[in-house]
Amino acid sequence: MTEPVLIANQLNKTYLSTAGVQQEVLKNLSLSVDEGEFVAIMGPSGSGKSTLLNILSTLMQPSSGSVMINNKNILQMNDDAIAKFRGQDMGFIFQNYNLIESLTVQENISLPLTLQKVSPKKVKDAVQKVAQLLHIESYLNKYPTELSGGQQQRVGAARALVHNPTLIFGDEPTGALDSENAREMMNYLTQINDNEGISIVMVTHDAFSASFASRILFLTDGQITKTITRDNQSREVFYQRVLSELGNFN
Ligand SMILES: Nc1ncnc2c1ncn2[C@@H]1O[C@H](COP(=O)(O)OP(=O)(O)OP(=O)(O)O)[C@@H](O)[C@H]1O
């Protein structure tokens, strides 16, 4: 039986506006993600997707509720333990890549390992391996500004993967890509999910990207109002299903 890598229980999040008005953005939301699962989170703008992802990935605290990752309660860890945990167990892929312009591609990808004080030889080997997988070996010595958007996105993905995380979080990982690069990124995520058993939790508004997931959670007003699973359907058939579900929502 597969074990859950992530269990979120009864999450609530309330923001206080500058005018002092409280807004409940997540409402008693619970979910779990199994080892090796690929989960997409969809929903209308403002439904709480990014807030949920930020809480699941330790970047934000909920108002109440708990989050367990690999059997550890991440809300009870101190800042040092959280930083170490993020560095070792999690990978992040964002829409805007978050690459550091003054560092080369090689240095950007190395960052999670350098921060963990891994030996230079091991860092080099790990970067080579991930660069091969993502077909970016030829521009390891370039700077991010010399690359196209799709290339930068692949470098961001390489950095998310270089330390062998057990869980990858993506916030609109194909948001800035054209359709060809989006397809390539999703094929790549599918490959690491299938071959390395890395679990993926991804927020997207894009039906095409979501159709690569094995399960899709639809969020409305801070609650999961619908879940669909791909089971043994082809991606193409699942894509049609996602489109029709989105039609029901909009
Ligand atoms: N830091 C914050 N302070 C106050 N309100 C916030 C904050 N972050 C988000 N919100 C509000 O919480 C609600 C949910 O925002 P969130 O970004 O989680 O939604 P989303 O589903 O990811 O939206 P989108 O698809 O537009 O990115 C919105 O109404 C937003 O204005």
UniProtKB/TrEMBL annotation:
<dbReference type="InterPro" id="IPR027417">
    <property type="entry name" value="P-loop_NTPase"/>
</dbReference>
<dbReference type="GO" id="GO:0098796">
    <property type="term" value="C:membrane protein complex"/>
</dbReference>
<keyword id="KW-0547">Nucleotide-binding</keyword>
<dbReference type="GO" id="GO:0006865">
    <property type="term" value="P:amino acid transport"/>
</dbReference>
<keyword id="KW-0029">Amino-acid transport</keyword>
<dbReference type="InterPro" id="IPR017911">
    <property type="entry name" value="MacB-like_ATP-bd"/>
</dbReference>
<feature type="domain" description="ABC transporter">
    <location>
        <begin position="6"/>
        <end position="246"/>
    </location>
</feature>
<dbReference type="Pfam" id="PF00005">
    <property type="entry name" value="ABC_tran"/>
</dbReference>
<dbReference type="GO" id="GO:0022857">
    <property type="term" value="F:transmembrane transporter activity"/>
</dbReference>
<protein>
    <submittedName>
        <fullName>ABC transporter, ATP-binding protein</fullName>
    </submittedName>
</protein>
<dbReference type="GO" id="GO:0016887">
    <property type="term" value="F:ATP hydrolysis activity"/>
</dbReference>
<keyword id="KW-0067">ATP-binding</keyword>
<keyword id="KW-0813">Transport</keyword>
<comment type="similarity">
    <text>Belongs to the ABC transporter superfamily.</text>
</comment>
<dbReference type="InterPro" id="IPR003593">
    <property type="entry name" value="AAA+_ATPase"/>
</dbReference>
<dbReference type="GO" id="GO:0005524">
    <property type="term" value="F:ATP binding"/>
</dbReference>
<dbReference type="InterPro" id="IPR003439">
    <property type="entry name" value="ABC_transporter-like_ATP-bd"/>
</dbReference>
